[in-house]
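User: Second chain of the day. Same drill as before.
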Amino acid sequence: MARNIPSGPPPPPPVQKLRLRYTKRGRLRFTSHRDIARAFERALRRAQVPMAYSAGFSPHPKISWVGAAPTGVASEAEYVEISVAERVDLVRLQQALDESLPAGIDITEVVEAPLGSNLPDRIEASDWSILLPGVSLDTAQQAVSQFLTAAEIPVERLMKQGLRTLDARAAVVRMSAAGDQDCATLSVVVRHVTPAVRPDDVLSGLRSVADLAPPMPPQATRLAQGPLSETGEVSDPLAPDRPSPEGPGATRAGADLEQVAAGSPS
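Assistant: Same format as last time:
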């Protein structure tokens, strides 16, 4: 049988790989990753970014999503990689995409990365801030203590394959509580495992071991994701790609990393 071969020349190869950090704020916390991806693809077309495409009968732009946040949470540290067929200016690219993306998605940094390098290899953990309206600091601290002393905390989540049991405790590297008697805030570092343990799973675990049931919906925001240090800190995954803090190989906008680590409005 004759083999079908796509007609026409193959697409030009990528000449530049770019890594983008972006936010997911406000009402967009309720937007699914699929809709975020569609918004990005439209923005890339509007900004006339010379995307590199895959070969074959159904070419698609070379876009790689890294550790996308689940629906219902905000984030200050989302990442996506794109490959382009022509070299682009990073500052102009960032400006053009920011003008084309909906409010709530802001490009906070663009760096150039070596072709063939792999950003997901650096994403080991996430640093989450979980606001607990109506929960006092004393109550939150007692719940955190009970959570951390538990050897195992099984929680259930409904997945495509059906109901599955996860160990919420095993993925949590560290957890602490701050705030006041009207509203506590949890700071939680969660190791990336398969299947992923999400903020909702951590809250289910707190409810299971400490009967913690916030009277109002919690608000989770991812502050950072990247390599995990021996002390349980989440490092910047773009640091190896950045020649210098203000060098020609990177452009930054909005809050710097110290401000992001301290928490940003969602």
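Helices lie at 33-46, 90-100, 137-149, 168-171, 199-210, 257-262.

User: Great, on to the next one.
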